[in-house]
Design a protein that fits this description.
The structure is a single chain. The protein is α+β, with helices and mostly antiparallel strands. Among the domains are: 39-47 and 198-338, Lipocalin, CATH 2.40.128.20; 128-192 and 341-370, no CATH class. Helices cover 20% and strands 19% of the residues. It has helices at residues 2-17, 66-78, 91-95, 128-145, 149-152, 340-361; strands spanning 42-45, 115-117, 208-213, 217-225, 228-235, 251-257, 260-266, 288-297, 300-308, 317-326. It has a nine-stranded mixed beta barrel with strand order 1-3-4-5-6-7-8-9-10. A hairpin with a 2-residue loop joins strand 8 (288-297) and strand 9. The two termini are 38 Å apart.
Length: 382
């Protein structure tokens, strides 16, 4: 009991420290830029942990009670998560070596979900075509796991799959443009965007973003974790290019509506989908994104994003975040992503895969397709 109370005290202390909102940022900027636009410049962060979609039992309730937020914080403290140990030395045990000690935690936020429209706080139903494409991807990834312990012992990552000998289709070209991890490592194209130092989707709700304003354009720099991120440029004039031109993060055009910056983004590439790797439908070339940034006060920026893709969802949907300004001085040296880990990790992963193949061919090692190198065994197919 005393041990549990001690852990609770430590966790509560951490949560208090993480309340960045209580720390004022020195050196406030003017309310307008030199060009007369509302000043949105700075480094901004959503300091809370908020579920993306609302739990169905909460109905249309947009905000949590103080008691519910405390329960969420305690539940995360008590969850073993990636610290869970299984048979020592097993594949599952090794897969959990990068445990939750290295994962920071934000305090539970006041909202019950980031999604605010529909009022249920849940993304609208997917179209039949989008569901079918999602199933094609899942079946492909399950096929590559077929001969692993993950399927042999009915782990959650193999839900819908079956255990058996390696599939004869394991060397086929994937029937889709891959952006997520699969249980094959023939080349970079078999790896996730994270493995390839290309994390980040538009819109992006994680990490911090840095806004720098010019007279005719605005730059948005995003941090997506693991030393990764990307840059967007929002043009404040001109039109979207022809539909044949497709870009990873789309083409963004902005304008001012009073104190609000409104950004419309189209011309997305079908190869870099939104909501990828989350086990559901993914939005590609037909996506239209409308974002709104409004300065609430010196320390707060309200962000709202509406996503529309009639080929994927039955209706548009909207998320809302309140971003808190972070110290320019304390973050002065972190203005660009540096994916050093991935720059070394990806070549090493591919070299390791070739060594495993050579060992198997020489009769000195297991079939590489009997090893799960794509999931965490207990979770879903990444």
């Amino acid at each position: 009991m005393l041990k549990w109370l001690g852990m609770a005290t430590v966790f509560t202390t951490i949560m208090v420290i993480l309340q960045f909102t209580a720390v004022p940022v020195s050196g406030q900027t003017p309310s307008e830029t030199a060009w007369g636009h509302p000043n949105l410049e700075g480094i901004w962060l959503d300091v809370y942990d908020t579920p993306f979609e609302r739990a169905p039992e909460l109905g249309d309730r947009e905000f949590s009670t103080a008691e519910e937020r405390a329960e969420r914080d305690l539940a995360r403290m008590g969850s073993s998560g990636r610290n869970r140990r299984v048979t020592r030395g097993s594949q599952q045990d090794v897969a959990g070596a990068y445990n939750a000690v290295y994962t920071s935690a934000k305090p539970a936020g006041p909202r019950t979900s980031l999604v605010v429209d529909p009022p249920t706080g849940r993304i609208p139903a997917a179209t039949k075509e989008a569901e079918q494409m999602s199933q094609v991807q899942r079946e492909w990834r399950l096929m590559l796991l077929r001969n692993t312990e993950t399927c042999q012992y009915d782990a959650r990552a193999c839900n819908g799959g079956e255990y058996g000998p390696p599939s004869p289709h394991r060397y086929d070209v994937a029937p889709f443009y891959n952006t997520n991890r699969m249980n094959r490592h023939d080349g970079p194209e078999d790896q996730s965007m994270g493995d390839r130092c290309m994390l980040g989707q538009t819109p992006e709700f994680r990490g911090f973003r840095r806004i720098v304003q010019g007279e005719d354009s605005i730059a948005l720099g995003y941090d997506t974790g693991q030393g990764q991120g990307y840059q967007r440029v929002v043009n404040l004039s001109g039109n979207h290019p022809l539909s044949q031109i497709r870009l990873r993060h789309g083409d963004s055009r902005g304008h001012w509506e009073g104190q609000t910056l409104v950004i419309e983004t189209t011309n997305f590439s079908p190869k870099f989908t939104f909501r990828a790797g989350r086990g559901g439908p993914e939005s590609g070339a037909n996506r239209t994104l409308v974002e709104r940034y409004t300065r609430v006060d010196a320390e707060t920026l309200e962000y709202e994003a509406t996503v529309e893709d009639p080929t994927v969802w039955a209706a548009p949907w909207t998320i809302r975040q309140q971003l808190k300004r972070q110290s320019d001085q304390e973050n002065r040296i972190y203005y660009e992503p540096r994916c050093h880990e991935g720059n070394y990790g990806l070549p090493a992963l591919l070299v390791g895969a070739r060594v495993e193949e050579e060992e198997f061919a020489a009769g000195r090692g297991p079939d590489p397709f009997s090893l799960d190198t794509a999931t965490d065994f207990g979770g879903g197919v990444q």
